[in-house]
Amino acid sequence: MGALKTRDGFTTGLGVLAATLGSAVGLGNIWKFPYLTGENGGAAFILVYIISTLLVGLPVMISEQMLGRRARANAIGTLQKLAPKRQPWWLIGVAGCLAAFLIMAFYTEVAGWVFAYIFKSLTGTILSTDPASTSAEFADMTGSPAQSLIWQWIVLIMIALIAIMGVSKGIERTTKRLMPILFVLLIIVCVRSLTLDGAGEGLDFLLEPDFSKLTGEVVLVAMGLAFFKLSIGMGTMITYGSYFRDDQNIPTTAAKVMLADLTISLLAGIAIFPAVFAFDFNADAGPSLLFITIPAVFASMPLGEIFIVLFFVLTAIAATGAMLSLLEVPIAVLDELTGLSRTSATVITIGLLALVGAPAALSSSTLADFTIADKTMFDLYDYATSNVLLPVGGFFLSVFVGWVWGFDQVKRALSNSGALRNERIIQAFFGTVKFVTPVLVLLVLLDGLNVI
Ligand code: TRP
């Protein structure tokens, strides 16, 4: 009997929150947010970032979840179902799949370093108060093609095993268990950092804006970070939205996720900068901040050898929920468009990722001199997704919702067919997504890429 396959989904409201927050919280909070804040002048950058999350991030997140839940399909299928015939809006989903692969390519590599650092901090090999020696240790790992590839593969296999278990039994169950642990560990590390002598300077850096560093490019980076952080612009939130319950209040859910995610980014800043300044290290070390500066910072503090393990465990947890959500985009597409089983779809996706990911993994060794537009493959994947593909995706999604799908559909979808009394919120959302979000994204994109 060809029994009708019922679609898997999240089972409880709490499960929706755990999975969605699990997607948003990731290396973006603990690796990207701190190093970008450090490079771009601290509080002023954070302010632009917060404005971007409100005017761009939140409206696009609500849009994606709403479309996904209405269509109950993957990123490509959702736009096929909801767009007028013969209009190619489904290309957003195709671009999203491409973006998922490019993000995963470098993301799994950084996650690989994080997992490696859990072990290296347990054995103590990376603990040194001298940045020259932590830097040599990091270069040793990233410079080894074998280590780079193996750690990436370990990460790929681990998330594949969770993904194969399914949406409710794999993703929902894992994130529900892990998110509270992450939060508790982060608070512990924050308390440690804040109680160090000289922590105040790091807090000032986070809280006192210096606007002289803001340029078009910096604003683009802040907006790109908002997209990356909130997992939007490429169909992750469409895919997760398609697993939401019918009675889920989408605007409230999105707002909670945005606020919780921002809190975790700020806590990560509080865990890192006061300690960095207390021991006189540089805040603007860039992407290596987490792997070179942080071990030296922890090695300098009392009981640092314990806190550094907690720190890398919490980072690994954060990365796991995010990777599950990235992986879900191509898995759902393959599963639903080709009728492959979830297991086959996962295995194929992971295999392809190992291929696309290898050039990123080898960016510090074999392929260190292979650059396009002055960027290694690792940097190129990162830049092209956060600062180009995701904003472009977000632009078209907001245009679709505001100008094609229209107010009546939005009202029905966000009020759960009239069950919720949230008329004002819907109006504010619709006005923003129709007029503010697309214009803002377009201007920042063109200015940041030096087109205007
Ligand atoms: N939001 C995650 C982070 O901050 C990364 C992530 C997960 C992501 N899914 C995504 C980024 C989809 C862009 C699109 O680490």
Task: Report what the structure shows.
The chain is mainly alpha-helical. 75% of the residues lie in helices and 0% in strands. The longest helix has 35 residues, at 304-338. The structure holds tryptophan. Tryptophan binds at residues 23-24, 26-29, 103, 228-229, 231, 234, 236, 322, 325-326, 390.
Task: State the gist of this model.
The protein has 452 residues and is mostly helical. The protein has helices at 13-24, 27-39, 43-71, 75-82, 91-122, 131-142, 145-164, 167-194, 200-207, 216-229, 236-241, 250-278, 293-300, 304-338, 342-361, 377-405, 407-414, 423-448. The chain has a domain at 2-55 and 101-227 and 248-381.
Mean pLDDT across all residues, rounded? 93
**Which structural category do the helix and sheet elements fall into?**
mainly alpha
Helix content: over 70%
Tell me the major beta sheet: none
- Shape summary: globular
Spell out the helices and strands N to C. HHHHHHHHHHHHHHHHHH
Radius of gyration: 21 Å
Distinct small molecules bound, one entry per kind = tryptophan
